[in-house]
Structures are given as structure tokens and as C-alpha cells.
């Protein structure tokens, strides 16, 4: 299907036209939802659950748009929004649509787009580049925002974030909750993989007939990541947790049982569109994007670095042995994470860690009294949260907001853990220890100075920084105009890299999570400029430059440290390797030999197999707890 010319000015690629046709068909089709059939006597039956009804089940208007990252999903979605606007102008309504009478519903053609704040700029840029000026009126519902429904309904597109919806979920006067939206699009929808998180509940509760889930990585850890997506799509019976468990999850976890997998595949086949950049066998590319090669550069630590590293690893292993059984390991989860974090930082640069080894250890956390009376421990755990850009609250799976540390030394967002305390369980979700309000401590806020003046430039460069400089110099020699992106999870590491790179003559920019959305888009714009004296190296945190950011002006990606989750790394690479890229893309992973980093690559490989092979089958149905402990032991080199 062609894009509506009065709204979209760009030519769609063939695969985008095919996707647009599929999206429009799904929205306007009056077919029975998947797995429902009409029987002889005019009733309807669900072939999976044998449920019967005389009333025709409503069609499922929406689905999962899961094309690989970098294939231009945003432009395809803008074309879809443009189609319904164009049809509305002609006064034509989609067939067979019954509308609930909600204020503003009749004339509303407003699409609500929900995405992480880092993706706002991508939607705005795509609107500017691909649509006629003023053809799609857009409102950013974030920060300072209207409380008037009428105001929002004047626009074709309202863009908001998952966290904004989460904040407003329990507020009385939220216009977003009251409106019957024409369409809701969840961009980067894997954000809602935790069904217990408040923002997930807020998204599921939105009113709309047309519902789209958009993500290049629908499964990141296990097939259970798909359940919240089904709940949002209201795809019955899979939107009901007990049915999802009995029809998909349990059969998948039983060994040698193809039923769960077959069901999962037919379910995804019925409601999702997924194309990857390479067709099967990697022979032919679906769009003409130049090749991507991924290489690993292995680095030896210096004698001094190795000494620090080995000492830290030994301390960690001893601690883990001390904890003994898996329940005890989980109770002391944050202590183990602390070691893992420090080992990862030592691979990057000793300067990321305080040098008195004893001061690194967060205490065993075995005695409640000690913890609550130990402000030093709280400070250390706060620094742990600050150091790890990738530290997430285990309840909402987002970086903690108003960080709370429990007396059992686990870290959560204040709202998440308070909600648990109000519920009947009132136990720590990780170690199941009883908690009350007195067991919660607010972590001291860590201020982010924009520049870190305390970095000593005279100190010797770490082995990994030296390796990066060598690679960057070689690339600049081959092509002085080529641009590179260096990804690291540690904000402090990005700051540490600035000095040596500037001293080596590189024109650099930094993009990290502490910047406002406005500042981020300024940095991306500056990096996009071409010509003499323009920046050639972007130092970026994965969180800030992960989702929805377009960096095709660069052709080399350096992953300074590996990430737990292969999906997140793929996202980082695909900021550069996507439509619009004209050069071959080279991705270089910097990995320290004989270290936790090699073990992280192994863990990534396991997760990849889990996702592609059995579409999320767990090994022999092991419990989550067991797998998590096994991963912790593996990271410390004990498995």
C-alpha cells in the first residue's frame, strides 16, 4: 500500500509498503480473532479453550509490529496515522466499528504514542523529515502538560512516556486515562516486560480499539516477556495470566513438548509481522543496507591491573562460598552484584573504583542491626547504584527513581517497594525476608557534576583505554572523515575517556542519561554534521542512545564493555546499522582476557539460543531463582 501523499512526502521502500498494507488490513478487518471459529449452529467456539459463545467475538484490531531495528518502522507508522487522517477527511469510516460513547470519541482520530523519552526526538525528526509541514499536529505530553482532554484531542498524535503514564496511573485527573484513543502505539514495547510494574498496568488500562505493540526485540529474556504484550492487546485468552501459563508457558517449559512452541508460533504468526535485515541464511538483504561485521578485540591487563582484578575476584568467590546455599546468595544479592560490578569496572579502568580494597566491600549484610546502624554501608550501596548505569529496580526493571535500600541490602524505587509493603505479602521480592517501613532507607542522592574535574590526566592510561585509542587512531588514518560511537554503561567511564581522546586530537561529544531530552537531541544533531572540524567520536551510554536514536552518520561502533542482555547490545549496534547507512558497519567489542567479560559473552550466547531456538524455552523448566543463582556463580567464575 502506498503512503498517503497529502501527508507523507517520502517514498516508502517495498518492505514498508507491505507493512503498511498489513497494518491497515489488521485495523479494518472484521475477521474473527485468531483461534475462534464459527460452528454449524451459528455460535462461536475457541479451539484452544473450547469456550463457546452466541455473540460474535470482536475482531482484534492491532498486533505486534516486530521488524528488526533499523528497518524504518516509525515512518511506516506515520504513514498508517496519515492513512486514517486522510480517510477521515473523506468522511469514510472503517467498516464494522462499534464505538463506545466517550467524551470526544466520535470525532477523535488521535493516536497516542508511548515510548521512552530517548525516543521522543526520533519521532519528532521523522515527522520533520517525512511529513508535510502541519499535516500531523503533534503534542508532547511530558513534563509541563495540559490536563484538558479537549486540548489533546485537537492533535493527530500525542506522544508520552511509559513513566509519565505510570505516575498518572493512580491520579484522578489524568486526561490520558479518560480518553478513548483512536489508536495506541507502544514503541519500544519490550519496556513493559514486567507485568507487575505500575507503568505496565497503566498501559494495559488505556482505552483504545486499535492497539499496536512495536519492538525489534519482543523477547529479551524468556517467552514470559510476551505475556504483558498480550494483556495490552487484549488478545484473549492469552491476555489472562492463568491461560498464558497453562496454554503456553507450562508446555514450553516441559521437556520435549512441541505443543507450547507450536502454539506460540501460530499465535505470533497470527498477530505479528517480523522481518529481519538478512533473509534466511543471511544471503540476501531485505533492504540495501551495507553489511555489518562484529569483531572482538581481546585485551591483556597490565601486571598491576591483573593484581587488583585477581584480588577482587578472590574476595568475591570467598564471599559467595561463605553464603553457601542459594537462598543465602539471594538474600545477599546486592553484595554479589557489588562484586560483579567492581570486576566489570576493573576491566575498564582501575580509576572507576576506590583503591582501598576493604572499602569496596559492602559488608555481609547478615545482621539486620548492623545494616540499619551503618550509614557507611548505605553510602556504599548508593555509590553502587550510581556507578552502574545498568542498575535496575527488580520490580519495574527501570533505573531506580528515589532509590530505597532495604535492611536486607536490596535496592528498589521508593514507589515500587512501598506498594509491595501495602500489599498482603510485605516481603522483600528478592530474598523474601519480612519488611516494614523501618527497614527502608533512602539512598543519599548522588549529584552528577557535568564535568569531573578530579580526573587525573597524568596517571597511566588503562590497558583498555590504550587499546581503544590505538583502534581509533588506525581508523582515522584510514579515513579521517569517518565517525565512531563508543558505548559504555558507566557514565564515569565516558567522562574518563574524554581527556585522553581530546589529548590525542579527537573532536568528541558525550551523550549520557543525566542529560535532558533537549540536550540529548542537540548532541545528536551536532554529531550528525559533516565537514572539517565536526565531531568524529561520540561517547554514549547505552541507555541514552539505545532506543530509537539514529546515528547512521557513524560507521564504526566500539562496545567498550559487554552488556548482560544481547538484545540491548543489538539495539546499540542498530543505532548505526539501519536504513540511511551508506557505509559498511564495523562493530568492535573490547573484551579483557580471562575475566568476567568473557563469561558475560557466554551468558549472552545462552540467552540468544533461548530467544531464537525455542522462542524462549527455559532449560528443563528450571525455576527462575535457580537460573539467577547459577548466573551469579557463573559471573564469579565458579561454574
TrEMBL record:
Protein's UniProt keywords contain Cytoplasm: no
Which residue windows are coiled coil?
none
Query: Domain RING-type, which positions?
Result: 393-432
Report the superkingdom from the record: Eukaryota
Q: Where is the Helicase ATP-binding domain?
A: 54-236
UniProt keyword list: ATP-binding, Helicase, Hydrolase, Metal-binding, Nucleotide-binding, Zinc, Zinc-finger
UniProt domain Helicase C-terminal: residue ranges: 467-633
Q: Does the keyword Zinc-finger apply?
A: yes
**InterPro entries, alphabetized:** Helicase_ATP-bd, Helicase_C-like, P-loop_NTPase, SNF2-like_sf, SNF2/RAD54-like_C, SNF2_N, SNF2_RAD54_helicase_TF, Znf_RING
Can you quote a single GO CC term? nucleus
- GO MF annotations, alphabetized: ATP binding; ATP-dependent activity, acting on DNA; helicase activity; hydrolase activity; zinc ion binding
Gene Ontology biological-process annotations:
DNA repair
Question: Which protein family is it in?
Answer: Belongs to the SNF2/RAD54 helicase family. RAD16 subfamily.
Protein name from the UniProt record: SWI/SNF-related matrix-associated actin-dependent regulator of chromatin subfamily A member 3-like 1
Native species of this protein? Answer: Oryza brachyantha (malo sina)
Amino acid at each position: 500500500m502506498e503512503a498517503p501523499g497529502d501527508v507523507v512526502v517520502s517514498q516508502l521502500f517495498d518492505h514498508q509498503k507491505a507493512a503498511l498494507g498489513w497494518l491497515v488490513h489488521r485495523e479494518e478487518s472484521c475477521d474473527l480473532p485468531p483461534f475462534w471459529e464459527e460452528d454449524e449452529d451459528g455460535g462461536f467456539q475457541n479451539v484452544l479453550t473450547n469456550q463457546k459463545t452466541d455473540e460474535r467475538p470482536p475482531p482484534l484490531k492491532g498486533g505486534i509490529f516486530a521488524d528488526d531495528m533499523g528497518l524504518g518502522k516509525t515512518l511506516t507508522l506515520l504513514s498508517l496515522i496519515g492513512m486514517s487522517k486522510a480517510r477521515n477527511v473523506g468522511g469514510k469510516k472503517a467498516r464494522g466499528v462499534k464505538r463506545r460513547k466517550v467524551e470526544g470519541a466520535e470525532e477523535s482520530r488521535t493516536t497516542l504514542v508511548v515510548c521512552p523519552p530517548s525516543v521522543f526526538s526520533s519521532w519528532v525528526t521523522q515527522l520533520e523529515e517525512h511529513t508535510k509541514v502541519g499535516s500531523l499536529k503533534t503534542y508532547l505530553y511530558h513534563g509541563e502538560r495540559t490536563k484538558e482532554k479537549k486540548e489533546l484531542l485537537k492533535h493527530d498524535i500525542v506522544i508520552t512516556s511509559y513513566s509519565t503514564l505510570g505516575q498518572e496511573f493512580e491520579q484522578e485527573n489524568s486526561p490520558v486515562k479518560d480518553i478513548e484513543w483512536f489508536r495506541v502505539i507502544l514503541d519500544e514495547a519490550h519496556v513493559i516486560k514486567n507485568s507487575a510494574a505500575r507503568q505496565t498496568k497503566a498501559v494495559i488500562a488505556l482505552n483504545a480499539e486499535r492497539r499496536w505493540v512495536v519492538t525489534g526485540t519482543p523477547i529479551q529474556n524468556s517467552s514470559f516477556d510476551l505475556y504483558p504484550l498480550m494483556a495490552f492487546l487484549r488478545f484473549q485468552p492469552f491476555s489472562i495470566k492463568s491461560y498464558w501459563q497453562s496454554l503456553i508457558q507450562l508446555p514450553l517449559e516441559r521437556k520435549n513438548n512441541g505443543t507450547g512452541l507450536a502454539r506460540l508460533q501460530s499465535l505470533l504468526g497470527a498477530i505479528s509481522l517480523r522481518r529481519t535485515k538478512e533473509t534466511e541464511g543471511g544471503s540476501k538483504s531485505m533492504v540495501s543496507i551495507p553489511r555489518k561485521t562484529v569483531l572482538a578485540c581481546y585485551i591483556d591487563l597490565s601486571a598491576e591491573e591483573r593484581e587488583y582484578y585477581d584480588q577482587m575476584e578472590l574476595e568475591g568467590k570467598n564471599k559467595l562460598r561463605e553464603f553457601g546455599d542459594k537462598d543465602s546468595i539471594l538474600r545477599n544479592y546486592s553484595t554479589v552484584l557489588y562484586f560483579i560490578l567492581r570486576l566489570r569496572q576493573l576491566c575498564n579502568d582501575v580509576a572507576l573504583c576506590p583503591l582501598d580494597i576493604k572499602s569496596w566491600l559492602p559488608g555481609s549484610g547478615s545482621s539486620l542491626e548492623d545494616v540499619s546502624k551503618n550509614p557507611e554501608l548505605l553510602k556504599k550501596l548508593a555509590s553502587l547504584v550510581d556507578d552502574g548505569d545498568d542498575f535496575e529496580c527488580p520490580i519495574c526493571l527501570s533505573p531506580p527513581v528515589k532509590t530505597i535500600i532495604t535492611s536486607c541490602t536490596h535496592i528498589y524505587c521508593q514507589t515500587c517497594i512501598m506498594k509491595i509493603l501495602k500489599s498482603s505479602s510485605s516481603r522483600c521480592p528478592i530474598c523474601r525476608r519480612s519488611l516494614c517501613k523501618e527497614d527502608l532507607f533512602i539512598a543519599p542522592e548522588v549529584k552528577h557534576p557535568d564535568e569531573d574535574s578530579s580526573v587525573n590526566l597524568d596517571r597511566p592510561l588503562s590497558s583498555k583505554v590504550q587499546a581503544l585509542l590505538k583502534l581509533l587512531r588506525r581508523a582515522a588514518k584510514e579515513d579521517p572523515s569517518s565517525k565512531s560511537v563508543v558505548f559504555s554503561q558507566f557514565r564515569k567511564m565516558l567522562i574518563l575517556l574524554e581527556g585522553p581522546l581530546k589529548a590525542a586530537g579527537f573532536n568528541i561529544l558525550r551523550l549520557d542519561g543525566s542529560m535532558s531530552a533537549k540536550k540529548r537531541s542537540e548532541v545528536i544533531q551536532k554529531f550528525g554534521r559533516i565537514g572539517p572540524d565536526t565531531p568524529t567520536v561520540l561517547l554514549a551510554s547505552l541507555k541514552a542512545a539505545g532506543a530509537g536514536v539514529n546515528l547512521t552518520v557513524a560507521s564504526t561502533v566500539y562496545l567498550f564493555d559487554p552488556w548482560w542482555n544481547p538484545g540491548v547490545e543489538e539495539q546499540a549496534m542498530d543505532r548505526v546499522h539501519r536504513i540511511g547507512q551508506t557505509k559498511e558497519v564495523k562493530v568492535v567489542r573490547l573484551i579483557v582476557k580471562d575475566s568476567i567479560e568473557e563469561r558475560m559473552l557466554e551468558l549472552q550466547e545462552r540467552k540468544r539460543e533461548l530467544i531464537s531456538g525455542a522462542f524462549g524455552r527455559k532449560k528443563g523448566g528450571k525455576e527462575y531463582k535457580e537460573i539467577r543463582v547459577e548466573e551469579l556463580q557463573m559471573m564469579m567464575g565458579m561454574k
